[in-house]
Amino acid sequence: MTTIKQDDLIESVADALQYISYYHPVDFIQAVNAAYEKEESKAAKDAMAQILINSRMCAEGHRPICQDTGIVTVFIKVGMDVQWDAELSVEDMINEGVRKAYNHPDNKLRASIMSDPAGARKNTGDNTPAVIHMEIVKGDKVDIQVAAKGGGSEAKSKFVMLNPSDDIVDWVVKTVPTMGAGWCPPGMLGIGIGGTAEKAMVLAKESLMESVDIQELKARGAKTSTEKLRLEIYQRVNDLGIGAQGLGGLTTVLDVKIKDYPTHAANKPVAMIPNCAATRHAHFVLDGSGPALQTPPNLDDWPKITWDVGPTARRVNLDEVTAEDIKEWKPGETILLSGKMLTGRDAAHKKIQDLLDKGEPLPEGVDFTNRFIYYVGPVDAVREEAVGPAGPTTATRMDKFTGMMLEKTGLIGMVGKAERGPMGIDAIKKHKAVYLMAVGGAAYLVSKAITHSEVIAFPELGMEAIHEFEVKDMPVTVAVDVNGKAVHQIGPQEWQKIIFDRKKAS
To answer: In terms of DSSP bridges, do strands 253-263 and 187-195 run parallel, antiparallel, or are they unpaired?
Structure first.
């Protein structure tokens, strides 16, 4: 009989969440670096350079890899011979660990969880509750896997109930392009096959806790049907040419993980959940000897990569730029932004829409005339920071507001993550605006370009409030120009053809 103390579980969960906020798993970093070394697409290679540099900076500075510090997912296996020395339930102990981690004074993490999700959508303030999957198993230990799952990758989760004769690989290859780039590739695909609908989803999520080992599998060869599936999906998805951040390139996925479960004879449920470039998870075991604390990795395992935008980058003063100036910008061009910009995500856009619909003015200090908006919900600053990690959020969520913003506020440009959808592109083209892309998975690096931050409207929205940022040489890429030409369409098409032609020639 093993006795597990309440504080040991709480402290272990809190420590794991702090740890994974600033340390990538080393196997993941090694996989990204290998992809970086072989990448031929300049845009994709630059994106991976920023991801790797950001990762090292976070490891050294103990600040979050991504501004989206995730929804906490916990897989816990409790041995049947375990005795608890606790006043709280297991769920409450885990949530207390989450609360403690997210309110750490030296590395405060972003609270992103909304209660009443179909109604008031009120932020819980401490990122609780976690999503907990619990099993009772044989033994006298408690085995725990903890993950922080970002909303951008989670939003791209897919499920299908296939017929038994349908091909899983074909479905995956057909589906991945529909996910866009908001899940921040290069990353991993977790696939759950079998059971029931909800079981398949849990299997997909759990598979993402496994180590990155596809190259070892390729070297030794597949021995099971699942391993054959992994290799085929890995190859065919990368052959799509989507590339890092959807910019076109050789590597879209670093690994494919699959878990399966027996299922009903009439069905073949298949779930797919991506893990983004901010992959974050940890594993620990409690055996009654005290808390299980994470061991810091060796920073020598991180590649020493430098990234220079080069002399060709266009420098832009946001305080002086005009609608006429942006007509010169070309898709794929690197821009360095300096000056003042406003921020705004979904909730702020909805408030702006409500005010305009009522004929009411925008809050004092909020003037978008000839200005740019940055789609971001930053982490709170600590110590000497102007702002915490402040990477972009998925821009397609703002597509439905784009026409209104461009028509009624005087806005001329937007900065966000990944591609724009047809509605967004049409509005950009119609109003001769421009959309710029910042790299997802490089939030701490991006934040270093922000010299001042101030909340100027909707403070009740927390991280979704409108901030005014002052930036210095913030690196972005022209993703959609004033003519509606989109790099996220051009790049993958180009690299898919290159990959196809090479295979045909060989």
So the answer is: parallel
